[in-house]
Amino acid sequence: MSAPAWYDNGMRHIWLPYRQMKTAAPPLAVTKTHGSRIVLEDGRELIDGIASWWTAVHGYNPPHITNAIAEQAARMPHVMLGGLLHDQAARLATRLAALLPGDLSRVFFSESGSVAVEVALKMAVQFWLNRGVRTRTKFVAFKGGYHGDTFATMAICDPEEGMHTLFAGVLAQNFICELPRDEESAEALDRFLANHADEAAAIIVEPLVQGAGGMVFHDEQTLQRLRALADKYDLLLIFDEIFTGFGRTGAMFASEAAKVVPDIMTIGKALTGGTLPLAATVASGKVFDAFFSDEPLHALMHGPTYMGNALVCAAANASLDLFESQNRLLAANDIGKAMATALGPCLSLPGVSDVRVRGGIGVVELAGTPNREALCQRFVAEGVWVRPLRNVVYLTPALTISEGELAALTGAVRKVLESGTV
Ligand SMILES: *Cc1c(COP(=O)(O)O)cnc(C)c1O
User: Fold this and answer.
1) What confidence tens digit (pLDDT) does each residue in 74-91 have?
2) What burial letters (b/e) apply to 67-87, b meaning 16+ CB within 10 Å?
3) Containing structural domain, residue 349
4) Residue 147 CB–ligand 1 contact under 6 Å
5) Where are the alpha helices (H) located in 61-108, listed in sequence order?
6) DSSP symbol at 348
7) DSSP H or E stretch at residue 240
8) 146 an active-site residue?
């Protein structure tokens, strides 16, 4: 079937993400979505295994959210937050402050996760500057971590997997350490901080699950050790919950499950239920207090043009309504149980090195790095949309996916991996 004109014309002009535009297989033409389905131009429907980069927790086109967006669009799509405030942003900040653990209670909005992390980093450095400390400018981050694609965030991603090598010499130097998964690595980090903490503003980590770095899990104790070390060395602790937030790990936030409250948290991705781009950096009272003074220069020096956009905040408020009215956390845990049962047998397949599940995240790790495009094409042939991250085949479906659709996803993963990992 020949592609429509918009596709052929657009492919001469659009620049797609993470993609060798010369050699990569052409993207699939999509016309609409519904529930857990992506509908292609040629009429095929794919069951979505990854919920559009982990955003569409309520499935696609949830009417409660799309109606809220339409109503807000008719009333007021956008007004700047410089000198003005509107009900959607105010209500969303109030609701997030009530929902988030501890005294994480000051919400700064932005339009993408990378920017929310940039703001968290800037906030941490300025926290010290406002107290007259000019030497705490670096960050302690972890191998396997991913925090975004902008320059400051690239510089705290995993040095091997991230873009460190390509941009070496351009990126800021930070301390990329081993996660303190056991007593030994905790002691090593403790010794490292004894020498270097006074150069660092904060520790930043993705709590419980390192997402884009390969869906690698760690336990609650690892985060408790980080909280203890941050307290011992007077460092701020930042949790990047852009992937883990809003039910993905089976708790509303990973920090809740771990019973550890960070000083700053970043959220994004599923915040609007996969409908519109919104992220936020949320600070504790302790952090906010360092900015709250009679000195104008102590103000937080940041302000994205579209921050707190009313349409986007309306979508997020409607998404929170759905979390209140539907038991998404129970659903995440049920999905996890079903994935553990259905994916477990993959462990005996040649080329599979690990199978793991946490909440609504199911992972089959391969011993070698497969040809991702070939694998993707075989998944599409099975009627599912699954896109491996390097050597990790994973499922992060909508938390509303039906049992039958989930079985089709796990069945396709088994079938494709049984026939070889390419
Ligand atoms: C996706 C992600 C980001 C970056 O978010 P963008 O909206 O893509 O800029 C940052 N941190 C984590 C943990 C993420 O998963």
Assistant:
1) 999 999 999 999 999 999
2) ebbeebeeeeeeeebeeeebe
3) 5-58+327-418
4) yes
5) 63-75, 87-99
6) G
7) strand 236-240
8) yes
